[in-house]
Amino acid sequence: MAVTTEDLVKKAKECGYDKCGIIPVEQMAGYADSLDEREERLPETKEFYDKFRPFADPRAQYPWVESIIVCSFRYGRYDIPGGLDKHYAKAYLTDGRRNAASGCWKAGGRFDEYLEERGVRCASSRDFGLTALRWAAMKAGIGIIRKNNFFYTERGSWNHLEAFLIGEPLEYIETCAVRPCPDGCSLCVKACPTGALCAPYTMNPAACASALTTWSGWDLTTEPLRAKMGRWAYGCDVCQDVCPFNRGAWSGGEEFPGLSELAKHLPLTEIVEADYDTLKNIVQPAFWYIPADKVWRYKTNALNVMLNDYSPEYLPAIKKACSDEAEQVRKMAAWVLTKLKKREAGGTEAE
Ligand code: SF4
Ligand code: SF4
Question: Is residue 113 scored above 60 in pLDDT?
Fold first, then answer.
């Protein structure tokens, strides 16, 4: 059954999305050029960014695709309990991609159902998307990509993006009133604690605290950027938090399903002392970039924060972790204690 662009955009908003645009699939070809530019600026990122090349040509995997619907969902609407955003990136605290009770999940489910009812052939994937979400959203007029590489609408960067590849040739470009970054602004580059964001639009994922606390940096005792990761235990928001275009953009006011329960387990001492069932059944489903067979990683991340931002109240948990059931935790905890002793003795802390 035929649908119009107006039907689709109206329905996407009824389902819960804030903005929605539609682009012809051919527009994704330009994404390959943006990858070329990134790799030219920072050749060491080539291996990482090459993995995203298939996103520039969705038809290689889905030959029937004619256009891409892109939608944004503002997660800046949620309350963050008790200072958790000091240690955990807000996108992960309010990650609806695997939370069936979340507004973001429900919006995607309702929209998928609608497309099916209307006979629109569609492919989508909630975890990471099937194409380059920020690029597609920029082309669809939903917002812009700033110098910190994050995607912004008129209401800041705290938006989740989702794409639906469809078999109908449609186009709808949203009205974009987002002002570009001022020429002279480089607050995000200057604030990046690890130097990963080394120039505008230029970020080395291998050095990013967000990556180093999730899907890389597995042995923090040998990670050269460990100390610079500061207080971050999972993700990092610094380059977004300092951005003037995010000032006042996190409104809060709504409760994210399950976050108040999760929050009870997230203080650093709770994490370090947690039993492994709690980590597997409560923490990992929310912070799923760390796989279920490596949940010890939450503890080593928390131990690192305890070292970087030491307070005597952490000491019992660090000592207890020296006899943790996971070898990685025991090793990290013993190493942290040694570093603390050296620090107390006035020694240097060469990494
Ligand atoms: S997320 Fe943190 S570490 Fe990564 S680029 Fe931004 S400020 Fe730097
Ligand atoms: S901090 Fe400045 S340069 Fe960085 S993204 Fe924000 S406006 Fe752009």
Answer: yes
AA identity, residue 147: K
Is the torsion defined by CA of 33, 245, 93, 164 positive or negative?
negative
Q: What is the pLDDT of residue 82?
A: 87
Atom number, ligand 2, closest to the C-alpha of residue 186: 3
Domains of the chain: 5-166 (3.40.109), 194-235+264-341 (no CATH)
CB distance 153 to 143 below 8 Å: yes
Report the atom number in ligand 1 closest to the C-alpha of 212: 3
State mean pLDDT over 219-232. 97
How far is Cα 290 from Cα 279, in angstroms, rounded to an integer?
11
239 CA closest ligand 1 atom index: 7
The pLDDT-based confidence of 284 (bands split at 50, 70, 90) is very high
Q: Let me know: does 160 contact 72? Beta carbons within 8 Å.
A: yes
Ligand 2 neighbourhood includes 249 CB (under 6 angstroms): no
Average pLDDT of every residue of the chain: 96
Percent of the chain with pLDDT over 90: 95
- Tell me how far the alpha carbon of residue 196 lies from the centroid of ligand 1, in angstroms: 6
Cβ(144) – ligand 2 distance below 6 Å: no
Token pair listed for 233: 């235990």
DSSP bridge partners of 341: none
Single pTM value for the model: 0.95
Please state, in angstroms and rounded to a whole number, the distance separating the CA atoms of residues 90 and 88: 6
Residue 348: the pLDDT is: 60
Distance 15 CA to ligand 2 centre (A): 31
